[in-house]
Design a protein that fits this description.
single chain, BirA Bifunctional Protein, domain 2, 21 helices, 16% strand, alpha+beta, 6-stranded mixed sheet
Length: 787
């Protein structure tokens, strides 16, 4: 688990609106954006929340710091936490940083191999209008990570000093770095050296060189060098001198051994990717050549136009000079026009160059493999999966040894850099990591069936199923309902599958013999014909869609496939089916099979009496709002003319400027495509209404003082107490910290609510220390000596 602040290097470019737009945009990937939560807002819309944050940030004009805090929390590959657990982690970390009362928007991203979420925090307090900058936030985040790694059983991540630049480059580009190559191939041999001569000898055998630079040692060859301490702390100069004595350079007469291995900048993979890498290099060179040719053409056209502009104005200026002093104004105008025209042409050239670079952008090795894998290249997909070690996935999944290769006949949403293929169909996703098929925590029945068929195509008929007990039972039930030829490695799961299978065989036999249907028009019981057990298609039970066939005499053979297998969990009980009734607010006419059903093991299924009129009880009039016409008010319909008159006053004339409060909402026509892409649901988390801990503490102390205890008077801090006060301690009231302070001019105690940040700062002070508190209640610790 990793949590870190993503800093904005240029404060002037920091924008809360741009950050939220990036976080909440799907970027063409269906499963990229997960849950979006708004905290401490009075609105439930992301756009309105962003405008509210910008309004609050505009109040503070004195600060020169960045007004937005960007927090990123990421988890190890294979760890899949629920939204409730993510919300718990987010709340704890934000409160530890001192931003519990600040406005923030959190977004969960699931488009990579590592589940992660972003939090955009407004650093300006919504009431105090002061900016808050956490002290040593990296230490606070590290402590929070360790706490949740223990509590949730997450993978432990070592934190501290270390150079990860080379390792990060491998993850991003897919090419092996010198630092990673030394760690994997040379480090073990260097640990066995017992003298400086042996150490130099082993370094030379690997085509490297060890030499002193500054106060440390470096390893490398040619133009690529790394610090020896970045390979491992035991290779620092101080540690090596403790082990081998004072540093000695390699002797002049040292025999150069034959090179056994040498670093090459090539793809890092467990399999041979030379053919793929050669294709990648050829395409990269082709892209570079095209880009260079287009840039040369643009440069030639720019120089030609600039010469033409200069020649044109030189001629005009020469003519203007013939008029003497009277034409000085004309000369100034001509000079200004020439300067503006040259600036315009140079700006156009820069824009054209950026367009060329964007059109012919060079891809890294990992990005190119992703593109090829998404296009169906099985070799590129395998190369992605062989880059690093396979992750151990948790949760609901199918496992097996892959027999098929390539992509399934489903829509590929994205391919991650670890080779995980994310399929998307009908709103659900399936993650294919090669040896595992991973599903959501609570997958829908169609998703389970699709994943089950995909697993059989990839791994064969013998499958291993991991996950919750409900998921395993759902797999067994759906496999039996779909009559799949599958076998499970778990004996208990296989036993459940066989039990479900026998039940469905019994249902099929009853359906073929006609016991599951009763005449609805002239039948003995006067009830509509329903095959209540399951819909039947051919020789197998189907589900997930309606399978009704209505004949002339009013018989209905078949049932809602989605409810077919859900009623077979316990065939011996009496219960109510899951289909909603028309009396509960359904729209439109429905077949009899969609009504709520009651199951009796001794009889066929029948309609509930509360939802049936005419046969089981006296008929009554049905009332439903869907049959009424939409009217504006009683007695009058809303015509098209009325709508036009209501809207025409809201439309401004062409060319007019929008009001100031609406200018931030105008967008280009290109934004219309976002209207047709599904937007994730937004969870509104209002500010929590909790009891006032300050007043609770004051009431408790005053109650004891009234009983005769020797306690001084306590009261709430107010703006007139601003200035220097004496720190008198910290108390916890209902989990909320409050600070006690004594004014210098009177014998009483003022009580002030504290943030977690202020509590941590004050906890390091001795009682009786002097602090400064502003009118808004912000605590500042006095530093240094008063002069």
């Amino acid at each position: 688990m990793i949590a870190k602040k993503i800093p904005m290097r240029n404060v002037r470019l920091s924008s809360f609106a741009d950050l939220v737009t990036y976080l909440s945009s799907s970027q063409g990937i269906h499963n990229r954006v997960g849950k979006i939560a708004l905290h401490n807002f009075q609105v439930e819309n992301v756009d309105f929340a962003v405008q509210d944050v910008l309004r609050v940030q505009d109040y503070n004009k004195s600060t020169k710091a960045d007004k937005t805090y960007h927090l990123l929390v990421s988890f190890a590959n294979g760890e899949n936490l629920s939204d409730e657990q993510l919300a718990q982690i987010e709340q704890s970390m934000v409160e530890a940083l001192g931003y519990g009362e600040h406005q923030r928007i959190s977004v969960v991203h699931r488009d990579t191999d590592n589940l992660h979420f972003h939090v955009a925090i407004n650093k300006i307090h919504p009431q105090k209008k002061t900016v808050h900058e956490p002290y040593r936030d990296f230490k606070v985040l590290g402590e929070q990570c360790r706490k949740f790694e223990i509590a949730l059983g997450l993978q432990r991540v070592e934190r501290g000093r270390g150079n990860r630049t080379g390792i990060d480059m491998e993850e991003m580009s897919g090419l092996e770095s010198l630092l990673g190559w030394i760690r994997r191939n040379v480090a073990d041999g260097l640990r066995e050296a017992q003298s400086w001569e042996q150490l130099h000898q082993m370094v030379l055998e690997n085509g490297l060189e060890l030499k002193q630079r500054g106060n440390g040692l470096v390893l490398g060859a040619g133009e690529v060098w790394v610090k020896a301490s970045s390979v491992s702390r035991e290779f620092s100069k101080a540690k090596l001198e403790q082990k081998l004595g004072a540093y000695r350079p390699p002797p002049v007469d040292l025999a150069v051994p034959p090179v056994k291995a040498q670093y090459e900048k090539k793809p890092y993979s467990r399999t041979d990717t030379s053919r793929l890498y050669a294709t990648y290099q050829a395409e990269r060179n082709k892209t570079e050549r095209r880009r260079r040719e287009q840039l040369e053409d643009l440069l030639y056209e720019r120089d030609r136009d600039i010469r033409s502009i200069q020649a044109k104005y030189e001629f005009r200026i020469r003519l203007a000079k013939l008029g003497g002093r009277r034409n000085r104004t004309v000369l100034r105008i001509l000079s200004s026009q020439r300067r503006l025209e040259l600036q315009s042409r140079r700006s156009q050239y820069r824009w054209q160059c950026r367009s060329v670079y964007q059109q012919h952008k060079q891809q890294t090795w990992a990005d190119w493999l992703q593109q090829q894998a998404a296009a169906g290249n099985a070799e590129a997909l395998q190369a992605l999966r062989d880059r690093g070690k396979q992750a151990v996935y948790r949760g609901n999944q199918f496992q097996g040894r892959e027999e098929g290769s390539g992509l399934a006949a489903m829509r590929v949403d994205t391919v991650t850099k670890k080779g995980t293929v994310v399929y998307e169909q009908d709103g659900y996703t399936i993650r294919d990591a090669g040896q595992t098929l991973h599903l959501a925590d609570v997958p829908a029945d169609p998703a389970v069936e699709k994943a089950l068929r995909l697993a059989m195509a990839k791994y064969g008929r013998r499958l291993k199923v991991e996950g919750t007990q409900d998921f395993r039972q759902k797999v067994a039930r759906i496999a039996a309902a779909a009559d799949l030829d599958v076998e499970f490695t778990d004996p208990l799961l296989e036993q459940s599958f066989q039990q479900y299978k026998r039940r469905y065989i019994d249902v099929r036999s009853r359906t073929r013999s006609g016991l599951g249907a009763i005449d609805g028009v002239g039948g003995r019981d006067g009830i509509g014909s329903v095959d209540g057990a399951a819909g039947v298609k051919g020789d197998r039970i189907v589900f997930g869609e309606r399978n009704d066939v209505r004949s002339r005499n009013g018989r209905v053979d078949g049932a809602v496939r989605a409810g077919a297998h859900t009623q077979l969990d316990d065939p011996g009980r009496v219960g109510v089916g899951a289909a909603p009734s028309s009396a509960e607010g359904g729209d439109g006419l429905r077949g009899v099979s969609e009504r709520r059903l009651v199951r009796d093991p001794g009889r066929t299924q029948m309609l509930l009496s509360g939802h049936v009129s005419g046969h089981l009880e006296q008929s009554r009039a049905a009332d439903h709002p869907a049959v009424r016409r939409a009217i504006h008010r009683a007695g009058s319909r809303l015509t098209a003319a009325d709508v036009f008159q209501a809207v025409v006053g809201l439309v401004a004339k062409p060319g007019s400027k929008p009001p100031a409060f609406r200018r931030g909402y105008l967008q280009g026509l290109s934004a219309l495509r976002s209207l047709f892409s599904p937007r994730p649901a937004v969870t509104f988390v209002p500010a929590q209404q909790v009891a006032d801990p300050v007043q609770q503490y004051i009431n408790e102390r005053e109650e004891k003082r009234q009983k005769g205890f020797d306690i001084v008077h306590h009261r709430r801090y107010n703006a007139t107490d601003a200035g220097r006060l004496i720190f008198n301690g910290i108390r916890e009231v209902g989990g909320h910290p409050v600070g006690l302070f004594k004014p210098a001019h009177c014998d009483e105690v003022v009580v002030l609510g504290l943030s977690d940040y202020a509590r941590r700062r004050l906890a390091k002070l001795k009682l009786g220390s002097e602090v400064t508190i502003s009118k808004s209640g912000q605590v500042r610790i006095s530093k240094g000596r008063n002069r």
